[in-house]
Design a protein that fits this description.
The structure is a single chain. The radius of gyration is 22 Å and the shape is elongated. With 329 residues, the chain is an alpha+beta fold. β6, α6 and β7 form a beta-alpha-beta unit. It has 12 helices and 10 strands. It has 2 domains: 69 residues; 239 residues, no CATH class. The relative contact order is 0.13. The protein has a 6-stranded mixed sheet, sandwiched between helices.
Length: 329
């Protein structure tokens, strides 16, 4: 039996499932040798650990920050990165075997995470606009490549409150003279968990849905602790500019949180407690463009009442000289 085949059989029982308990290479070599058939050098074993950790089908993963290896878990089943409607679950509904309870549970996770991202951006001075109608039952599957879950608007002026802020009329006038938008518009694609099987699909959907904005973000709930996965996302970011981040919320914590409606309507103290549970990690920073693709935005407006509503809101804020929160519901 080849060394790789032996390691594939041995490693699942030797590796911890928790990345925080990762085994260093030297200790893993010692444990493997106790059961390994054949005489292999430490260099050969380390090489196989490194190569296998980059293979999504192998049981071994290397921690993103720090040293050591842990057991790669299976990805969260379907809807880990979908909208609330089963019809657009990226073709992965079969993974749930038509289990209505599992579907409802997965959808509740998605709603909670979207509510968390919404509140996080409000607290940090950005105005989130949610797209929902684009993902209703019967909508084209291609909408996943055209619309983000959210558009994040950063007016970059004023410090009044998280619900509204004053706009600097002189700055608005200056940007209009320069042909620049008076805000930064970023699209956000939300996913529960990243894995080596689907991160490219996640990334390029985020890229495609950002073409009419000034930049894109791919935001995961669960920490990204697999080094090969983080490196893959950084490589895509380097080539295409979409930002990647994690909120550092594990599945168990997400399940324990209140329902989405409670998160959105939480009192300030409750919101503060929620924010303390977020361990935000910037994997790769986004590259923003100065200009919006107005032709693409206009095309989207003609196709979507939500996009039209977003434009109306932006215009009204500029006319009033105040940015007021508007949820896309």
């Amino acid at each position: 039996m080849s060394l790789r085949s032996q390691l594939s059989d041995l490693l699942p029982s030797l590796l911890p499932t928790n990345p925080a308990e990762a085994i260093k290479g030297t200790e893993l070599i010692r444990l493997v040798r106790l059961q390994l058939t054949g005489n292999y050098s430490d260099a050969s074993l380390r090489y196989h650990f490194s190569i296998m950790s980059c293979d999504p089908g192998s049981p071994i993963a290397k921690v993103e920050k720090g040293q050591g290896y842990y057991r790669r878990s299976a990805p969260v089943p379907a809807l880990s990165g979908a909208q609330e409607l089963v019809s657009l679950s990226q073709g992965r509904l079969d993974d749930l075997n038509a289990d209505r309870g599992a579907v409802d549970h997965a959808l509740e996770r998605v709603k909670k995470f979207r509510a968390i991202v919404h509140r996080f951006n409000e607290v940090n001075g950005k105005f989130p606009f949610e797209f929902r109608e684009a993902f209703t039952s019967g909508s084209p599957l291609g909408n996943l490549w055209k619309f983000p879950e959210m558009a994040l608007v950063d007016w970059q002026t004023g410090e009044d409150s998280e619900e509204e802020m004053s706009l600097d009329s002189r700055m608005l006038n200056l940007k209009q003279r320069l042909g620049l938008p008076p805000f930064r518009l970023t699209s956000a694609r939300l996913r529960i968990q990243a894995n080596l099987h689907s991160f490219r699909e996640d990334f390029f959907q985020a890229l495609s849905a950002s073409m009419w904005t000034q930049g894109g973000e791919l935001i995961y709930a669960v920490p990204i602790e697999d080094e090969a996965l983080a490196d893959g996302l950084r490589a895509l970011n380097s080539a295409f500019g979409v930002g990647v981040s994690s909120f550092g919320i594990d599945i168990e914590t997400l399940d324990d949180l209140p329902r989405a409606a409670n998160i959105l309507n939480a009192h300030p103290k409750e919101t503060e407690a929620l924010m303390e549970r977020i361990n935000f990690d910037r994997i790769a920073a986004p590259r923003h463009r100065q200009h919006i693709d107005w032709n693409a935005f206009e095309t989207l407006r003609r196709e979507s009442s939500e996009a039209a509503r977003l434009i109306d809101w932006l215009c009204n804020c500029i006319d009033k000289g105040r940015a007021e929160a508007l949820r896309g519901e």
